[in-house]
Amino acid sequence: MKRFDRLLLMLPLLFLLLTAVTDVLLLRRSGQRQYLVDANRIEQRILQGEIPSPADFPAVTGITADQGDADFFRTDSPYLIREINGTLYRIDYTAQTKGSTMRAVFAADAGLFILFAVTMGVLLYIRQNILRQFARLNSVPYELAKGNLTTPLQENRNRFFGKFVWGLDMLRGEMERTKANELERAKQEKTLLLSLSHDIKTPLSAIKLYAKGIARGMYAEPDAQAEAASHIGEKADEIEHYLNEIIRNLHHDFMQFDVQNTEFYLSQVMERIAAYYTDKLSVTGTDLQIAPYADCMLSGDPERLEEVLQNILENAIKYGDGVRIAIAFSDEEDCRLITVSNTGCTLPDAETAHLFESFWRGSNAGSKPGSGLGLYICARLMKEMGGDIFAEIQNGEMCVTAVCRKSS
């Protein structure tokens, strides 16, 4: 923004300099060259049989044919001699053509002024309506990183950054909701742990008391020992119940997905997928093959289906050998199946059953970065859209199929 302001301050000086240089060049060129132009025009008229008048030419003061007069070569004014049709003509001229020269200078100055005004107007408009708005948005990622999520983003009336601001505000809102959900979940988990830990203390204390009694011989009779053992078992079962409650809550779904189910054409998603991954894979030299398909209306969320296919394709890029990735289509009952396959699969068959579990990574992951959530998210999204997803290994290729329901 500061550099742009400096440019705005320098622009008038640049235009003044340009105007001065233009005026000087026009004055010099007009004074030195106009008489030559007029002389050529006079020669052309004489060759055409006309008798030209000096009044028709701004730089010419006289046109005289050589009649043998002694003053033909007089030097009282600047002149030049032209031989035309065998006759010498004296063309007297003046370098002072102020009228036409000043008109040309004025026209040039007026043109430059209009250009300057238009340029300044455009630059000021850009500064006020584009750069100023962008400078305000420039700090948004920093504020989001600091956790300042409460202030909604406001768009200018010209809406140059409409979709960008809308996307940033969606991101801000989603981060705010995620943060609120995390805080609420942390609060619930802490409350649960405190409650369960308090509940566990009671049966644990009873077990410790029975254990001390047995150690001191307080239960010498077999019936008393059996009763004590029974009570210990009951308290152990009670503790096990609390532990199962903790484990159940830990395994509860920890991610929430906003899925807006509607009706859309398959081509809406595939055109974006094809455009993005054709460019991306051309850089790595991977052969992307997309089979022909009959377009159809699907039921679900097109953006979420695109996210599912992106996750599958990114896994194919990460864990394949980079030779070929193919996308095929088939139909089964009222569903359209989209299968992404890649060459170079090194995952054992026995591990395919765990691919869609959260935080699970296959033995072929090695040192490759990842969280083990990509295919888990795909499974959750497909379930929310009423579809399904499964994986299998065929002829050394990993095949992941998204089952999409057709619109009824």
Please, could you describe this protein's structure?
- The protein has 408 residues and is an alpha+beta fold.
- It folds into three domains: 2-104, no CATH class; 164-250, Signal transduction histidine kinase, dimerisation/phosphotransfer (DHp) domain (Helix Hairpins, Orthogonal Bundle); 262-405, Heat Shock Protein 90 (2-Layer Sandwich).
- The protein has helices at residues 2-47, 98-137, 140-146, 162-215, 222-250, 266-284, 302-319, 374-384; strands at residues 60-65, 79-84, 87-93, 262-265, 287-290, 297-300, 324-332, 335-342, 388-394, 397-405.
- The strands form three sheets. Strands 5-7-8-10-9 form a five-stranded mixed β-sheet, with helices on one face.
- Helix 1 packs antiparallel against helix 2 (98-137), helix 4 (162-215) runs antiparallel to helix 5 (222-250) and helix 7 runs antiparallel to helix 8.
Short description:
This protein is an alpha+beta fold. It is built from 8 helices and 10 strands.
H-E order: HEEEHHHHEHEEHEEHEE
Q: What is the CATH topology assignment of the largest domain?
A: Heat Shock Protein 90
Structural class: alpha+beta
Question: Which residues form runs of ≥5 with pLDDT under 50?
Answer: none
**Beta-sheet strand percentage?**
15-25%
Q: In terms of quaternary structure, what is this?
A: single chain
Total strands: 10
Residue share in helix: 40-55%
> Distance between the terminal alpha carbons, to the nearest Å?
54 Å
The biggest sheet amounts to:
5 strands, mixed
Strand order of the largest sheet: 5-7-8-10-9
Count of separate DSSP helical elements: 8
Reported CATH architecture of the largest domain: 2-Layer Sandwich
Overall mean pLDDT stands at: 82
The CATH class assignment of the largest domain is Alpha Beta
Fourth-tier CATH superfamily name of the largest domain: Histidine kinase-like ATPase, C-terminal domain
Q: Mind telling me the C-alpha Rg?
A: 44 Å
Shape: elongated
| Structural domain count | 3
